[in-house]
Design brief:
Elements lengths: L6 H72 L2 H47 L2 H44 L6 H12 L9 H11 L6 H8 L4 H15 L7 H19 L1 H5 L1 H28 L5 H22 L10 H14 L17 H6 L35 H11 L1 E7 L8 E9 L8 E6 L1 H14 L1 H19 L10 H4 L2 H10 L2 H27 L11 H31 L7 H42 L1
Antiparallel strand pairs: 1-2, 2-3
Helix pairs in contact: 1-2, 1-3, 1-7, 1-10, 1-21, 3-5, 3-6, 3-21, 7-8, 10-21, 11-19, 11-20, 12-16, 14-15, 14-16, 15-16, 19-20, 19-21, 20-21
Length: about 650
């Protein structure tokens, strides 16, 4: 056929059409980015709603705890402990001063650590707040929207290339001939069809495929024409019309091909209203696709992080260990009356006797004022600061069991110094109040304790110097360390036997700040035994959690899974196992407390660990889900971008 025309001229005009199409596609890209960003904002909101409530509660609790700790630290630092330490210097010398100074230093450290912990907590809350996560979701969705927009704009331009080439080849082949000259011309034309840009390899391959299709029909051409706008079709029709009439001769085949193309353009023009809304359709389709991708990835994440069959054994094992921990600690810390019927007291005394059997009980058995022989330390049942009777007239230091809250030997911390010294010197050190309303300076006062000829029936005798008592016990440590060691063992065992009795043991330093009555009242609500119990509950819960996490983590070694996020997804299942077991164990303590009507059976330490893990683990899972979803979306849109760029 006589088909000849200036291909470069036509392409330059087509380039203008491409610019128009690209501009429309770019506008659509912006709309896609904006609308997809809004859709993903809602999706991001839904992704973090699962942890919003728990994070709010746990965050509130954490802030309250930190604020309470900070307030407690300030109260300690500003209390009368400093005044008591200053007054004690004149009485007990440098040792007491050092102890009081250390107490003040520790109090200041509490304030500093609490403030630092509170600041870290606030920063953590900010990073994991609803608004922060929503902002990150917006940024990620806008990025994905831009990639989708770029992809659509580029694809629109390439669709124009395919349509233009397809209709051109159809006209070249419409007369049934495709000469060697036409083939060479078309091949050279394909090389110049990039409009000054480097086309991706995939686009060039597709164009060569269209050009080499010897059975190309108009139905095949329509598949490409359907993907371009009416404006682009008009431009192509105009260029083809010019090309057909260039040689002044129009064959019947060319006329028939031209009619097919004109009819197609006219049919498309009837649907112009629909065609004008193509950008809205593209945006709608992209948003719908984005939502479907998020939903699919969320389902995939839930599927990979839900507990598997092999995880059931870990849940059962972890729950059993945690429940045993709750029951065992409650049994060991059960309140029992002091005396022969107290099983814990008997066990501790048996341990003490076994240890004392290893000591060499040599030397003079008799005791003198401010000196207890090692034989007396090893064989006497009780301790001198447990004496409640007076050798002479009543000194009114305390009444009965109230002596625990008046003697420094029963202080769980100060007792390590004063209680041990009292045992080595057969003495008792009490505190004398010089303040009013239960608050004021407490001055340590020491009295000797006399025993009968059998080494029993201790009675409080005359007052002695506290400094002299401490000096004598200090010399004893140097001269007879075995006696000092026996006295220290006896002190620790005695505190242990009194921890879980009805009176209990007061909090450290309490009787330096409060009088006997207020210390006793405070101990009714919270004692050293309660603090140790809660600490043991929390410590054992953490230990069991660590053990379960280690064992469950080892199971990943036997799985051949080298996929992305394999370890993090497995770790999420581990955290779920621990959360379930901790929740069941803490709930079991509530049931036990309700049945026994004893609130001290509550697993407060385990509950604190559970609240902490709820806060941290749910935040971890939410962050991992956010990273996982964004990573999978990045894969989708980055793949399209790579395909676009070849």
């Amino acid at each position: 056929m006589g088909f000849g025309f200036d291909f470069e001229n036509i392409l330059s005009k087509a380039a203008e059409t491409v610019d128009t199409a690209s501009k429309g596609a770019a506008d659509a890209a912006g709309a896609v980015a904006q609308t997809v960003s809004s859709a993903a904002t809602a999706a991001g909101k839904a992704a973090i709603d699962t942890t919003k409530a728990a994070s709010k509660v746990a965050g509130s609790l954490t802030g309250t705890i930190a604020e309470g700790a900070c307030s407690a630290g300030r109260a300690i630092a500003a209390s009368d402990i400093g005044k008591a330490a200053s007054g004690a210097t004149d009485i007990i010398g440098g040792i007491a001063v050092g102890a009081a100074t250390e107490a003040m230093r520790q109090a200041n450290n509490v304030v500093s650590d609490a403030a630092s912990a509170m600041e870290d907590g606030v920063n953590f809350l900010k990073d994991n707040s609803f608004s922060a996560r929503l902002k990150r979701a917006r940024l990620e969705s806008f990025k994905h929207g831009m990639k989708q927009g770029i992809y659509l704009a580029g694809q629109r331009r390439f669709d124009f290339y395919y349509a233009y080439l397809a209709i051109l080849c159809f006209f070249l082949r419409c007369d049934g001939e495709f000469s060697k000259e036409e083939q060479d011309w078309l091949g050279n034309s394909l090389e110049s069809m990039s409009f000054g840009e480097s086309l991706p390899t995939s686009v060039k391959a597709r164009m060569r495929e269209i050009a080499s299709n010897e059975t190309l029909t108009f139905d095949d051409v329509k598949e490409h024409l359907d993907k371009v706008s009416l404006v682009s079709l008009d431009a192509i029709k105009e260029h083809i019309q010019i090309a057909v009439e260039l040689d002044g001769e129009v064959t019947e085949e060319e006329q028939r091909a031209d009619r097919l193309f004109s009819d197609y353009v006219a049919a498309r023009a009837v649907c112009i209203s629909l065609d004008d809304n193509w950008a809205d359709k593209v945006v709608e389709k992209s948003v719908r696709e984005y939502g479907e991708n998020i939903e699919r990835i969320n389902r995939e994440f839930r599927e990979k992080t839900k507990l598997q069959d092999e995880d059931t054994a870990f849940v059962i094992g972890a729950t059993m260990l945690q429940v045993v921990r709750v029951l065992a600690i409650n049994a060991l810390t059960q309140i029992e009356d002091a005396g022969q019927c107290n099983t814990k007291e008997q066990v501790l005394h048996d341990v003490q006797n076994d240890l004392f059997q290893k000591f060499n009980d040599s030397g003079a058995p008799g005791s003198t004022p401010l000196y207890a022989s090692k034989h007396h330390i090893l064989t006497a049942r009780g301790v001198p600061y447990d004496a409640t009777r007076y050798a002479g007239e009543s000194l009114k230091l305390f009444q009965g069991a109230n002596h625990r809250f008046a003697t420094l030997g029963h202080d769980p911390v100060l007792g390590l110094l004063f209680g041990t010294a009292n045992i080595m010197t057969n003495s008792i050190t009490c505190v004398k109040s010089t303040g009013t309303l239960g608050i004021g300076l407490r001055i340590p006062m020491t009295f000797s304790v006399a025993y009968d000829f059998t080494g029993k029936n201790p009675q409080i005798a005359e007052p002695v110097s506290t400094i002299r008592m401490l000096i004598n016990s200090g010399k004893r440590v140097v001269e007879e360390p075995s006696a000092a060691a026996a006295a220290l063992i006896k002190q620790i065992v005695h505190i242990g036997t009194d921890l879980y009795t009805p009176c209990g043991i007061q909090l450290p330093f309490a009787n330096l700040a409060l009088d006997k009555a207020h210390v006793e009242k405070l101990t009714e609500y919270v004692s050293t035994g309660d603090v140790l119990k809660v600490g043991a509950q929390a410590g054992m819960a953490v230990l069991i959690n660590w053990l379960i996490a280690a064992l469950h983590g080892c199971s990943l070694i036997f799985k051949d899974d080298a996929s992305d996020y394999a370890f993090d997804l497995h770790q999420t299942r581990t955290k779920k196992i621990i959360l379930i077991s901790n929740t069941l164990a803490t709930s079991s303590s509530v049931i036990q407390a309700a049945i026994t009507k004893n609130p001290k059976c509550l697993d407060l330490g385990g509950a604190a660990v559970l609240v902490y893990r709820l806060f941290t683990d749910l935040s971890f899972i939410a962050r991992l889900k956010e990273e996982y979803v964004n990573s999978k979306l990045d894969e989708i849109y980055d793949t399209r971008e790579r395909e676009l760029l070849g």
